[in-house]
Design goal:
Elements (H helix, E strand, L loop, with lengths): L17 E5 H15 L15 H9 L4 E4 L2 H9 L4 E4 L7 H11 L4 E6 L2 H13 L4 E7 L12 H12 L3 E8 L9 H24 L7 E3 L5 H5 L6 E3 L9 H6 L9 E12 L2 E4 L16 E2 L7 E5 L4 E4 L11 E6 L2 H5 L4 E6 L2 E7 L8
Parallel strand pairs: 1-15, 2-3, 3-4, 4-5, 5-6, 6-7, 7-8
Antiparallel strand pairs: 1-9, 9-10, 9-14, 10-13, 11-14, 12-13, 15-16
The structure holds pyridoxal-5'-phosphate (PLP).
Pyridoxal-5'-phosphate (PLP) binds next to loops.
C-alpha cells in the first residue's frame, strides 16, 4: 500500500467523516480502462459506483460516450451531464415504465436503452413507450451464470429478441451479459470462464442472424473479468466495468492483475481512545459500507495491522498497539472495502488534486428519483 498516494494537506477544516476523490488517481484508472478496452467505443462504464456527473465529464473528455446505470436517478444524472447513450441495465417494471417514458421525452438529445428478460416486461414497456409516441432500445438480458436476472442464451432469448423486434415503441438493441459470479482469483480461470460464455454468445448470435435480427451491440461484464472480455472479438462488444473507476480495497486485494488503484477514500477522525490499545473512529456503517465480512470494512494505509473489532452505526473501534500514538481529533484515511455503496452515503466528495483539497463534486444520483 503506497501511503504517499493518499497524503493530503489542508484537511483540518474538513468535517468528518468525509468522502475524498483523488482526481489524478481517477484519471489514471480511466486511462487504464481505455488501455484495456483498446478504444472508447468498446466501453460502456457503469456509473453506479460514483453517481457523479463530474466523473461522467472526465470520461467524456476521453471520448467515452456510452454509459451504463442501474437506477432512473442515475439515468437522469447522465442525461443532464450530456451523455449521448444511456443504458439502464436494470429491469423496468410497473410504474417505472411510465417514468422511463417521461425521461426519454425529457431528454431528446440522449439515446436511451434498457434491458429486459421477460415477455410481460417488454409488453409493458412497449405499451408505455408507444402511448407516449416514443421508442427505446431493448437489450435482451442473458443469464450467463449468476442466476440473478436474465434468460439463458438459447431459444427463450431468441424468442424474446424476436418479440422485441415486433413490438411498437421498442427497437432490438442487442444483448446484455453480466457475469458478476466470475470472481475467480486466478486470471486464467476468469479467462476460461469468459471463453465459455463467448461460445454460447456466438451460437446465439448465429441464431439471431439466421432470423435477420440486427444485434448492434453486446454489453458485457464488470471489473473482475474486464481484461478477459476486452480480449474477445465479438462484433459490437462493449465492456461495462464500474467499480474500477474509483476502485476499492476488496478488488485491489483480490484482483491485483487488473492494474487499478483505489481513488476514493473516507477521511475519519479519532473520537475516543477508550483503552490503551483501542481507537474509536467516526466511521460507522453509515459512513463506510458494511459489506461482509465484519472486521474488514476498510483498509487504513497508516494502520494496516489494526483489527476492526466493533462496527456500529456511527462508530468503528480499532484495536492496535499503536493506539497510544493517537489523540482525539487525529485524522486517518480509510480505503473502503466496497466503494459503490460507500459513495452513495455522501452528498458530495471533496476532490484532492496534487495533494490538496481543490473543490467538491456532488454525488448527484445518490438518491432515488425525485
Ligand atoms: C449489471 C452490472 N453491470 C456492470 C457492473 C459493474 O461491475 P463491477 O462493479 O465489478 O465493475 C455491475 C455491478 O454490480 C452490474 O450489476
Amino acid at each position: 500500500m503506497d501511503r504517499q498516494l493518499y497524503a493530503v494537506q489542508g484537511v483540518e477544516k474538513i468535517l468528518s467523516p468525509a468522502l475524498l476523490f483523488f482526481r489524478e488517481l481517477i484519471e489514471k484508472n480511466l486511462a487504464r480502462m481505455l488501455e484495456i478496452a483498446g478504444s472508447p467505443e468498446r466501453l460502456c462504464p457503469h456509473v453506479k459506483t460514483h453517481k457523479c456527473p463530474e466523473i461522467v465529464k472526465l470520461a467524456w473528455s476521453r471520448g467515452i460516450r456510452q454509459h451504463k446505470c442501474a437506477t432512473l436517478a442515475e439515468a437522469v444524472m447522465l442525461a443532464e451531464a450530456g451523455a449521448s447513450n444511456v443504458l439502464i441495465a436494470y429491469p423496468i417494471v410497473g410504474p417505472n415504465c411510465l417514468r422511463l417514458a417521461e425521461i426519454v421525452a425529457r431528454f431528446p438529445q440522449t439515446k436511451f436503452a434498457v434491458i429486459a428478460d421477460h415477455p410481460l416486461a417488454v409488453e409493458a414497456l412497449s405499451s408505455a413507450m408507444s402511448q407516449a409516441r416514443l421508442s427505446v432500445d431493448v437489450l435482451v438480458d442473458l443469464d450467463v451464470g449468476q442466476h440473478r436476472t436474465g434468460v439463458p442464451p438459447g431459444e427463450a432469448a431468441v424468442a424474446l429478441y424476436e418479440k422485441i423486434s415486433h413490438l411498437p415503441g421498442l427497437r432490438p438493441g442487442g444483448l446484455h451479459a453480466y457475469d458478476g459470479h466470475n470472481q475467480q482469483a486466478d486470471l486464467d480461470e476468469r479467462r476460461r470462464a469468459v471463453d465459455s460464455i463467448v461460445r454460447e454468445l456466438t451460437k446465439l448470435l448465429e441464431q439471431l442472424h439466421q432470423r435477420r435480427l440486427p444485434v448492434p451491440r453486446i454489453v458485457v461484464g464488470g471489473t473482475p473479468t474486464f481484461t478477459s472480455w476486452a480480449a474477445q472479438h465479438l462484433p459490437g462488444l462493449q465492456c461495462s466495468p464500474g467499480t474500477c473507476v474509483l476502485h476499492d480495497a476488496n478488488y485491489a486485494r483480490r484482483f491485483p492483475d487488473l492494474g487499478f488503484v483505489p481513488a476514493a477514500l473516507v477521511l475519519t477522525r479519532v473520537v475516543s481512545r477508550p483503552s490503551a490499545d483501542r481507537l474509536t473512529l467516526d466511521l460507522g456503517y453509515k459512513a463506510v459500507c458494511a459489506d461482509p465480512p465484519a472486521g474488514q470494512r476498510c483498509v487504513f494505509p497508516d494502520l494496516p495491522e489494526a483489527r476492526q473489532v466493533l462496527h456500529n452505526e456511527e462508530h468503528l473501534v480499532l484495536e492496535t498497539p499503536l493506539a497510544r500514538r493517537f489523540q482525539p481529533g487525529d485524522t486517518l484515511m480509510a480505503i473502503p472495502a466496497h466503494v459503490c455503496p460507500t459513495c452513495a452515503m455522501y452528498d458530495f466528495a471533496w476532490v484532492v488534486e496534487q495533494g490538496r483539497i481543490s473543490s467538491r463534486w456532488p454525488i448527484t444520483a445518490r438518491g432515488r428519483l425525485t
